[in-house]
Amino acid sequence: MYTAATSIVAAAVEKDRQSQGNLTSLTIATALQLAMIVGTIFGVGLGGSSRFFVNVLLGNSVNDAALISAATNYVKIRALGMPAAVLIGTAQSACLGMKDNRSPLVVMIAAALVNLIGDIILVSSLGSAGAAWATVMSQYAALIMFIKWLNAKPLNFNTNEKGSSATRGILYGHFKVSDLFKMPQPQSTGIAQKFWEYVVPVTTTAIGRISGYVAMSHVVCFFGTADMAAQQILLAFFLCFVPMCDSLNLTAQSFVPGIHELSANVGNRSKLMKQTVENFLKAGTVFGFVMALIASCMPFASRVCTRDPAVIASVASCTPSLAIYCALSGVVCAGEGLLLAQKDLKFLKNSFSIFFFAVPFFLLRLKKSVLDGVQQVGLKSAWGIFAGYQVIRSAMWILRVRQLLIRDET
């Protein structure tokens, strides 16, 4: 939903700019209605299957009934927020498609404050369940703020405007809250079909990307205590810094679809596309270099989190692989964003279909080695697999982007 919303709304904005129509408003309204359907389906599915997936993730290494019960309860509560999560993600993506990064930032900061207050009030009395309820509350708070902003009376709406001045009131007179619970209108059939084009390829891409992380979490449960502790430190860094590179992915999806709409002058479009691709790859290289420098400090930073020499040594052993992964993250995110923006969905679907099986396959071989008593296998081996995966992915993305440029020029 998020990928499709960004790309389709960005293309709609360019069409409205040329024809002075209201395709953008209709596209965003349709996206929100589809998001409500998707969020509800996933919320019901996640809540109903929570215990099954918690058991699958933990495997046979953990038989603590209290832990499993707490985790299951946490997931069930978070599942209640799934409709809001999909809706705010779609609204945020739509804003990015209109070159507005300010409105989502303001909304998400406000939601984070709601989450923080909820944590302070609820965690002390409800524990992990309180943390889950605080997050759900913040998600619905963000949804309310987004709907109010998009439905507000526009100050001076102009389809040629960009940023928050254009997104404020974009749905004014075109959408009501009750419309969230309705199916898209007949005139939106073509727009809904555009979203459908993204379902299988992008879902396959997302599942293929996440399968490696899920497999890694499962396999690490079979390593020693020091490696499991080190993994938490590495993940804390990973989840804090690496997602910053995703901004390149989202930015590419915001800007590149508009370039594709410049079909009147193919020569200029090809030249502009080539320059855009080069700029994104350069930015990705800079992002990666900075991330690699930060990652190289992990052996020293880990001492803030632990005094255990074995844990510190485990973190240090994984640092080279983590640095390689980070060094290529910018290029990978930029390349993936460029491919998504150009709707090269079949290539991404096929690539991540392979990764879906390949990465877990190699990680699960580590689990087998541990169960067979091999002593040299540990967290370092797992991050080595991830570094290799990142190298292969970056090479594939760069080659494919170059191939699309050549095809566009001819």
SS field, number of helical segments: 16
Overall helicity: over 70%
The biggest beta sheet, please? none
Structural class: mainly alpha
**Basic shape:** globular
Strand content: under 5%
Note the run of SSEs as H and E: HHHHHHHHHHHHHHHH
Q: State the distance separating the first and last CA atoms.
A: 32 Å
Q: Tally the beta strands.
A: 0
The residue ranges in which pLDDT falls below 50 over 5 or more consecutive positions are none
Overall average pLDDT: 87
> Taking Cα atoms only, what radius of gyration do you get, to the nearest Å?
23 Å
Structure description:
The chain is mainly alpha-helical and 410 residues long. It is built from 16 helices and no strands. Helix 2 runs antiparallel to helix 4 (65-80) and helix 14 (309-341) runs parallel beside helix 16. The longest helix is centred in the C-terminal third of the chain and has 33 residues, at 309-341. The relative contact order is 0.10.
Condensed summary:
With 410 residues, the protein is mainly alpha-helical. The chain is 81% helix and 0% strand. The longest helix has 33 residues, at 309-341.
